[in-house]
Amino acid sequence: MVIPATFSPALRVCQRDRRPSLTRARASGLGSWVHVRGMLFDYGGTLDGPASHWLDRFAALYREAGVDVPFVRLKDAFYRADAAAYADPRAPGMSLRQLMDFHVGVQLDGLQITDGGLRDRLAGAFVARSEAALAESRAILAGLARRYRLGVVSNFYGNVARILSDAGFAPLLAVVADSTHVGAMKPDRRIFEHALQALGTAPADTLHVGDSYERDVCAAGAVGLRTAWLVAPDRRPAGGTQADLLIASLGELDHALGHSPEIHR
Ligand SMILES: [Mg+2]
Q: How confident is the model over 72-99, as a mean pLDDT?
């Protein structure tokens, strides 16, 4: 069994969240007193494959390719690749395909697997699934962009704007805050403050949507933003969370914010 990378039952309380407890784990929607004017989205596991961490996606791809790798070894190889991408000066110029070729190459080096065909298949499958998810997300954001100022806040390698532009998001986004360019990574509040300044909305009028409880829900909540946690129903802690909304897909945002999907999609 693969250990979920994004969920830890011990992390049900945001240690950094000092907001009054106005809201707690609402599944049905924000109250009408909340006036959302802007929305910020995480990228990985949010726009490119809802509620699915990259490590879990790779674990599934290795299994599908018939490669039996213990999860702890894959996790180590994955984070070596992650660190290598952050350190490589070429990364900010990479397309999604180039990035994944690089990423998978470092993973396979770490796993001591020499198989160029496997590298192509893993990277190609990851990209194909990302592109399909990005197309779905783009359609949803196109509807939301009629009502809200939109942006992206991502811990990434300097090329998330390139990837989003290639996927057709650029006209929909007022800001893309990539940690490599901002110089601060979630949960650092400075990356949210950078995005809010560009978005032109107050924290309390802005909803941050992401799949990581610590880096998205807790971190954005600590800056005063409203938060939507993108999390599969079977990964939700029973005791409640600090998120204002719990959603299983981006398509639920319309309803959660009190709008009928039929109106603008
Ligand atoms: Mg994420």
A: 98
Q: Is residue 91 part of a domain?
A: yes
Span from the CA of 209 to the centroid of ligand 1 (angstroms) = 9
Take residue 27 and report the two structure tokens written for it.
């599944």
Within a domain: residue 31?
A: no
| pTM, rounded to two decimals | 0.88
At position 82, the amino acid (one-letter code) is D
Ligand 1 center to 155 CA (angstroms): 8
pLDDT of residue 94: 98
Ligand 1 centroid to Cα of residue 216, in Å, is 8
CA of 57 to the centre of ligand 1 (A): 12
* DSSP code for 244: S
| Beta-ladder partners of 149 | 38
Among 256, 188, 265, CA closest to 226: 256
Average pLDDT along the chain: 88
Same domain for 236 and 108, yes or no, is no
133-191 pLDDT, tens digit per residue, is 999 999 999 999 999 999 999 999 999 999 999 999 999 999 999 999 999 999 999 99
Ion ligand 1: residues, CB < 5 A = 42, 44-45, 211-212
User: Are both 199 and 151 inside the same structural domain?
Assistant: yes
| pLDDT at site 2 | 33
Containing domain of residue 186, as a range?
38-51+133-263
Out of 81, 103, 132, a domain closes at: 132
Do residues 111 and 174 both lie within one domain? no
Strands 206-210 and 38-41: parallel
Ligand 1 geometric centre to CA of 5 (Å): 11
Q: Looking at the predicted structure, is the pLDDT value of residue 209 above 50?
A: yes
Going from the Cα of 211 to the center of ligand 1, the distance in angstroms, rounded, reads 5
Q: How far is the CA of 63 from the centre of ligand 1 (A)?
A: 22
| Structure tokens given for 4 | 């979920």
